[in-house]
Amino acid sequence: MPAYLRALANLLRNDPDNLNGGGGRTWSAIAREHGITRVRIGFDIGQLVHEFVVLRHVIRDVLQELEIWDHGPESVLADLLDGAIAAAVQAYVDARDYQARRRQAQEMAFVTHEFRNPLSAAILSSDQLRRKLPAEQATLLDTIDRNLRKLNQLIDSMLMTQRLEAGEVESRPVEVKLGQVMEGALEAARQVAAQKGLELRVDFDPDLTVMLDPVLTHSAIQNIVDNAAKYTDVGHVEVSVRDLGQEISVDVRDTCAGISEEELRTIFEPFRRGHTKKAGTGLGLAIARRAVEAQGGTIGAESPGDSGCHFSIRLPKPSRKTGGETGGDLPPGADPPHHATPAPTPTPR
Question: Which end of the chain is flanked by fewer CB atoms within 10 Å, N or C?
Answer without folding.
Answer: N
